[in-house]
Amino acid sequence: MPERIFQTLYPEYDVLEKFHTPSWNAQTREVVSRRLHEVPGRRFFDELQWKTLQAVADRVIPQPERSDPVPIVPWIDARLSKGRGDGTRYASLPPQAECWRRGTDAIEAEAQQRYSRSFHVLDPVEQDLLLRALDDEETESPDWHGLPSRSFFRHVLLRAVVEVYYAHPAAWSEIGFGGPASPRGYVRLAANRRDPWEGDEATSQPVKVARRR
Predict the structure, then answer these.
(1) Residues 6+ apart with CB under 8 A from 133
(2) What percent of the chain has pLDDT over 70?
(3) 69 contacts: CB under 8 Å, gap ≥ 6
(4) pTM for this structure?
(5) Which residues contact 90 (CB under 8 A, 6 or more apart)?
(6) Which of the two ends of the chain, N or C, has the fewest CB atoms closer than 10 A to its terminal CB?
(7) What is the pLDDT of residue 213?
């Protein structure tokens, strides 16, 4: 199978090089260190729900180039186990904990309905077809009754996966983001301007590189 290579405009940039610089204070270093080295274990989801969400995250943000992929599901689980949320929810969706458990179970039920196999063991094409059906609200499993599949997929699951991924330093390096602004702050906020401690585009075209951790 041919090697899959990730493309970035910042092949030489590593946000962690500013770890011991004035860009970050002690509190920022502590938070970043925990994110890198203290990945939480499973507390909220059961084993099958965890595997289902991991498989979904792998389709939403594939990381085949990483020997150590950015952990996504552990941080979603940690947030839910502590009852942390956004403070709001869509009226059509149930409360947060119920929404996540029902939605994850419904994805598994949909896989069983369509393919008679668990979602996490489906091949990538089957997984993508199923996820597209959720987004199109063309589900077959009765487990979706009272739970709009599109709203759950777009506004709950996808949002959380993307938020967690782009809260990781590896993702900051990929997009040239300078990381937390404490204590230095950002000054050049207008379009096409950058502070000197942010990533500098190496070229106008993406460069093919293997992803960093």
Answers:
(1) 110, 139, 140, 149
(2) 92
(3) 63
(4) 0.87
(5) 151, 155
(6) N
(7) 43
